[in-house]
Amino acid sequence: MRLAVIGAGAVGRSVVELAGEYGHEVVAVADSSSATVADGTDGRAGGIGVDPDAVVARKAERGIVGDADPDDALAADYDVLVEATPTTLGDAEPGFSHVTAALERDRHAVLANKGPVAERFGDLRAAVDDSDGEIRFEATVGGAIPAVSTVEDIEPGHVTAVRGVLNGTANFILTRMAAEGLDYDHVLAEAQDLGVAEADPSFDVDGTDAALKCVILANVLSFGAVDDPDAAREFTLADADVSGIRDVPGSALRLAAEDGRTVRLIGEATGETVRVAPRLVPENGTLAVSGTQNIVQIETTHAGRLNISGRGAGGPETASAVLGDVGRLE
C-alpha cells in the first residue's frame, strides 16, 4: 500500500521508518509547514517512495521534512492517509479535515490522532458512508495494545464493558508513589525529569487522555451494536465523567497497601457511559500494572473477561498499531 503520512512527530516518523518492514511504501510525508512527495505520486508511472532516512534526518536537522507544501502531500497519489498530527479537541481540526479529504477521494485513512474519533465520530461515519474508503483507528487506544480490533473481532454487541489503565504517565506516578511512599508533587517532578511526563502534564494527570480513549471505545461499542447508525449514541469528551490523580495523597496509597490494595487511574466504557477516576484495585490484581504499562479488560457475554496488556504509547509501539491497521485494509 502507498502511504501519505501527515504528522512528523514520534509516531509519524516511526511509521515512515517502519513502513517498509510491513511491505508498504511511503509516497508523501508532511508536517505543519512542509512536505516531501515522491516522484511519480501525481499519477505518472515509475514513481518510488520517499527515502525514510532522508526524511527523518531532515526533520531532526532542519525542523522540516521537505521543500514542498503540506497540501501537496494531501494531494499525492496514495492508497492510505496516515493521520498522525497532534490530538486536538472540539472541532478536532486539522485532523478531521485531513481524513475527510482522503475519504472524498475514496482513499482510506488510518488515525493515530484521537481527536476526530473521540470528538466527531458521527461525522466521520457519515463521511465513510459517502466514500469507497474506510477508516481504522487502532492506534488511538492503548498504543500497541489491540483493543479496538479485539472488540471488533468479538463483535461489539457481545461486549458489555471495556476498562483498564490507559495512560502510562499517570500509572508511572501512582506506581512510584506506592512503591516509595512519596507524594504526588515529588513523583511528578521525577517523571518530568525522566521524560515520562510533559512539562504541562494536565492532559495525562487530569484524566483527559484516558477519557478520550474510553470515549472512542464507547463509540465503537455503541455504533457496533446496532444495525442503524442513527440509533447509536455518539459520545464525545463532554459525555465523560472524569477525575484525575492530582488530589490522590500518598497517605491513601499507604493505607491501601495495608489492606493489600493500591490505586490506579481506571477508565471504563460501555455503550452508555464513560468514566475515568482513581480506584482501589487489588495490589496483585490484573489491573495493578506497574510503570508505564497499560492494560485493557474486555467484559464479554460469552467469553468471560479478556485481559490485554502492553506498551500504551511510544513512537514504534504506536506505529506498529498504525501499520497493523494498514494491513487490515489490504
TrEMBL record:
Pathway named in the protein's UniProt entry: Amino-acid biosynthesis; L-threonine biosynthesis; L-threonine from L-aspartate: step 3/5; Amino-acid biosynthesis; L-methionine biosynthesis via de novo pathway; L-homoserine from L-aspartate: step 3/3
Domain named Homoserine dehydrogenase catalytic: residues: 148-326
Chain positions covered by the region annotation Disordered: 310-330
GO biological process: methionine biosynthetic process; threonine biosynthetic process
Catalytic-site annotation from UniProt: K213 (proton donor)
Domain Aspartate/homoserine dehydrogenase NAD-binding, chain residue ranges per copy: 7-138
Residues making up the signal peptide according to the UniProt record: none
Binding site for NADP(+): G7, A8, G9, A10, V11, G12
Xref: Pfam families: Homoserine_dh (PF00742), NAD_binding_3 (PF03447)
PANTHER family listed in its UniProt record: HOMOSERINE DEHYDROGENASE
UniProt-recorded name of the protein: Homoserine dehydrogenase
Species, as recorded: Halorubrum distributum JCM 9100
